[in-house]
Amino acid sequence: MHISRLAADNRALIPEDVRDALGLKEGDPILFSVKDGQAVIRKVSLKAPSVDTAYLKSLEGGLSEWGSPEDDEAFDDL
Prior knowledge:
Layout: H1 16-22, E1 30-35, E2 38-43, H2 53-62, H3 69-74
Antiparallel strand pairs: 1-2
């Protein structure tokens, strides 16, 4: 367990072994969540998920009935 102090500019140091355990490097995005009075810090991956373009192409034909101007107008305010 580590203790860090909140600085005047609301920054806190993340201890080196915590950074190492999470694989954090300068500039990495991190996520904070709070539940039941406890904070959790996680490294965030901003890598784009892999996309199966062949699968998406196969869906296009089956979804064409939803691409009409009437549908655009009907669902425009959603």
